[in-house]
Amino acid sequence: MDTACELCNALRTISPQCACGGAMQDSGPVDDYSGPYSPYYNTEFEDPCCHHLFTCPNCGRDTVFSMPLRPV
């Protein structure tokens, strides 16, 4: 079964609140930051989530949120 991340495919947006009070912004999947071939990594052997990095523009804090992959 094929799955997809709602954030990566712009089917959903979220803006978590930072501890400083600012709205955090989605900086994309964490896998995009880990290596040149990471976007092509096979997720069937991993947990069924897409881990997104969120950054606060006010204080620079980074937080990772796990978004469940949904069947398509």
Q: What's this, in brief?
A:
With 72 residues, the chain is mainly beta. It has one domain (3-71).
Task: Estimate the helix proportion, in percent.
Answer: under 10%
% residues in beta strands: 25-35%
Element pattern in H and E: EEEEE
Oligomeric state of the chains present here: single chain
Radius of gyration equals 13 Å
Total helical segments = 0
Q: In total, how many domains does the architecture comprise? A: 1
Task: Give the helices and strands, then pairings.
Elements: E1 3-4, E2 25-29, E3 49-55, E4 62-68, E5 70-71
Antiparallel strand pairs: 1-5, 2-3, 3-4
Can you characterise this structure?
There is one protein chain. The chain is mostly beta strands. It has one domain (3-71). It is built from no helices and five strands. The strands form two sheets. It has a three-stranded antiparallel sheet, with no helix packed on it. Strands 1-5 form a two-stranded antiparallel ribbon. The radius of gyration is 13 Å and the shape is globular. It starts with a strand and ends with a strand.
Task: Fill in the keyword field for this structure.
mainly beta, 3-stranded antiparallel sheet, two-stranded antiparallel sheet, about 70 residues
